[in-house]
Amino acid sequence: MADKLSLTELQLLIRDSLYLALPQNFWVVAEISEINVNSSGHCYLELVEKNNDEKNVRARIRGIVWSSRFSFIRSYFENITGETLRSGLKILIKAKVEYHELYGLSLVISDIDPSFTLGEMEMKRQLIIKKLEEEGVFSMNRELEFPVLPQRIAIVSSKNAAGYTDFINHLRGNSYGYVFYTALIETPMQGTETEEGVISALNKIADSEMFDVVVIIRGGGSQTDLSWFDSYAIAYHVTQFPLPVITGIGHEKNMSVTDMVAFSSLKTPTAVADFLIDAMAAAENKLDEMSSDIRELIRMIIEENRNVLAGYSTQLLPLARVMLASSRERIAARVMELARTGRENTYRSGMITAGLQSRLFSSVKAFSAEKARSAEAASQRLISITMNSLNSYRERLSSIENELNILNPENVLRRGYTITSLDGKILKYREYVNAGDIIDTRFIDGKIKSKVMQDNQAHNEQ
After folding, report:
1. Which stretches does DSSP call E strand in 11-170?
2. Strands 90-100 and 152-157
3. To which H or E segment does residue 245 belong?
4. What is the pLDDT of residue 112?
5. H/E/C letters for each residue in 171-234?
6. H or E element, residue 216
7. Phi-psi bin for 88: left (phi > 0), alpha (psi -120 to 50), beta?
8. For position 235, what pLDDT does the model report?
9. What are the pLDDT digits (tens) for 286-327?
10. How many CA atoms lie within 13 A of 355 on its CB side?
11. Three-class DSSP labels, 64-104
């Protein structure tokens, strides 16, 4: 039987063989699967290499960075990359193979190249962008129509994030007094749970159908925090989202892929709040412009009808005078003709007595007087009809002007009426109001907000 070895002897033989075969340091590409720093400052990593599917592991080894090197390596790496050493990060390490009779094979790491990690991060980011562009979805959210009044806002953030508090305070403290209705869908905004949390929040918002716009905010942070939003899954969900998505992740220098595909990307949460406030101000200005246009249109219609009425008056009065003069001329001609005919008949017969002649002249005078009265009456009727027509046009024009003035919202408010709205919608029926609702009431000189103390159901029961 060959010489027997103890387990320790075999382990030492393996160690010595490895040291003889692999005496130098190697630069090794690996992905961090797990990382832990103990109380003494030593860093222990589990390093893996995955297949092309990025799921199945094809190689695994333990790595160690002793505390004497780890503090320097970590500080240098984070300053250059803006990233912390974390799970899922691909790194290029300088390491020496070590074999221990108790702990087995491991790599003792003496350096980590930050430039490699930066290149890997950017390559991953560019691959995500390219994939979204090839799928034809990269600009889909930016192509949505932005709501005229973005008052109902869904917020994807953490309630403890400073950016969330800044956003809410800035939004509610706007100088215009606009009212916004916000709902926080809370989710982690950094770490490995970010992707799943943000996607879940977006799905909840899409299912509710209660909002006008979505904002994703988190406030300031390191570059490593931004990298969580270089996620294909988050970016794809944003491109497919049915509402405009506005991001305020809080980085001045770089944009994440999520920022790129969003409807609008702003540097800070307060900038997002300003964007929404400006949108409301633009809508108010548009309404003011429309109100001015309506008033100008009303003025033009009234002026046009006045000109038409004046034209009718100018045309009808001369026509009436011409008709009256023509009637008088015809009557006078008829009188003269009758008189001439009477005289001719009298002279022709030679037998007409003075009495007959007198009666004839009397008849002629009576007939002439009757015709004159008829002509005068016809003239008066024509004048009366003309004046009635003019008065009718004046009354119709005045009625149109009054109706237009009545329809003017400012006149409605001046008569003591008010306009009440809930969530930006004008209320017409009491049944749409419930206890606890905050309603807006507009008067001629401003607005007030009221809280409903008793709902419609309670009122009916009484």
Report:
1. 26-37, 43-50, 57-65, 90-100, 104-113, 152-157
2. unpaired
3. strand 245-248
4. 92
5. HHCCCCCCCCEEEEEECCCCCCCHHHHHHHHHHHHHHHCCCCEEEEECCCCCHHHHHCCCCHHH
6. strand 213-217
7. left
8. 92
9. 888 888 888 888 888 888 888 777 777 777 777 777 777 887
10. 0
11. EECHHHHHHHHHHHHHHHCCCCCCCCEEEEEEEEEEECCCE
d(CA 383, CA 371): 18
Q: In Å, how far from its chain's centre is CA 330?
A: 77
Place of tokens 């973005």: 150
What is the Cα–Cα distance from 137 to 130, expressed in whole angstroms? 11
Count CB neighbours of 178 within 10 A. 17
Place of tokens 């015709």: 371
Place of tokens 């290149």: 119
**Cβ burial, residue 341 (10 Å; 0-12/13-18/19+):** exposed
Per-residue pLDDT band at 352 (split at 50, 70, 90): low
What is the per-residue burial (b if ≥16 Cβ within 10 Å, else e) of 143-154?
Answer: eeeeeeebbbbb
Q: In Å, what is the CA distance from 438 to each residue of 152, 177, 283, 434?
A: 14, 14, 22, 9
Q: Has residue 223 got a pLDDT over 70?
A: no
Residue among 412, 399, 211, 377 at smallest CA distance from 309: 399
At 396, the amino acid letter reads R
Sign of the CA dihedral with 424 first, then 425, 430, and 433 last:
negative
List Cβ neighbours of 301 (8 Å cut-off, separation of 6 or more).
Answer: 400, 404
Q: pLDDT (tens digit, 9 = 90+) per residue, 13-33?
A: 888 888 888 888 999 999 998
Q: In the numeric block, which tokens belong to residue 287?
A: 């309404």
d(CA 188, CA 198): 8
Q: How far apart are CA 386 and CA 312, in angstroms?
A: 10
Contact 301, 404 (CB under 8 A): yes
Q: What is the mean pLDDT of residues 433-453?
A: 85
Phi/psi of residue 366, each to 5°? -65, -45
